[in-house]
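Entry 12.
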Amino acid sequence: MSGRLTRLQPIRNALFSPPVQIHKSAVSRVALSQCQTRQSSHSPLGAAPATQRKKVTLNTLRSLHQKDEPITMITAHDFPSAHVADHAGMDMILVGDSLAMVALGMEDTSEVVLEEMILHCRSVSRATKSAFTIGDLPMGCYEIAPEQALESAIKVVKEGRVQGVKLEGGLEYAPTIEKITRAGIPVLGHVGLTPQRQHALGGFRVQGKTTAGAIKVLEDALAVQAAGCFGVVLEAIPAELAAFITKKLKIPTIGIGAGNGCSGQVLVQVDMSGNFPPGRFLPKFVKKYGDVWSESMKAIEAYKKEVKSREYPAKEHTYPMTPEALIDLERVAGSDFAT
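Predicted 3D structure (tokens):
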């Protein structure tokens, strides 16, 4: 190794040591070129929306509710998904614990932990300039006591940089919600089907189908409203029940599998955009608005084909070297670079 380094030293000296006289105009051209073109694939993804919106606040959401204008909400789990959601004009963006499955490959939402949620919240918040952002409190970070829940909520808002938190549960979590809201943190409730408690519910089953079940969901919704929630998610309950609860409450309801009688709607972005392989199970309430998976597959397969055929990269995708520099390289280096 030392012998090879000794042989390469004269080459380095020949290539780099002599002072080079550079004309000022050449320096100017180089500086201008560097300003105009970023010669790296590591460029920021963010860009300002074509039409800048005012920041959505709690007052904005209350105004929409009062005007009976549906509130739009969608999930995001990283910078790109939040960036497109914000550009599309969503009123609210939820960093849902569903990212456990759609972003981290876990079996269900019970696996994701607070630290992981905070990381994803931080990524989403960097992209979101207008929408009101909410971070889910994952299972295990708020059930023990209201004090534990408040500590977790503070971390999600302070470190995750979101505007509020969401937690699952009804009447039994009213003291917890009250504790968090009294600290000045907006809380979005979640009743009906609560996925974090799927095992206790016997799986992902529609709630409130019986009179007793419907009364339970209504009581839960009223309880979280009384505890200070600014809104509540109604998941997987009959449309008639959701519309009934919406009329009974003074706060907006956000439906997911709860019909169009709610104050707004939320869907998981991966589901509604079709960013998943064929054959994946989708709940009945999901409408597939796109086919991101197929478009990505086409693009990646085309890239693979062009790389294999050496069609890519073409001349327009490469950086030039002057013929003189190449001749000098061959002259100075010669066979010394041979192994």
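Annotation: Residues 22-36 have pLDDT under 50 and may be disordered. The beta strands are 71-75, 92-95, 132-136, 164-166, 187-192, 231-235, 253-256, 264-267.
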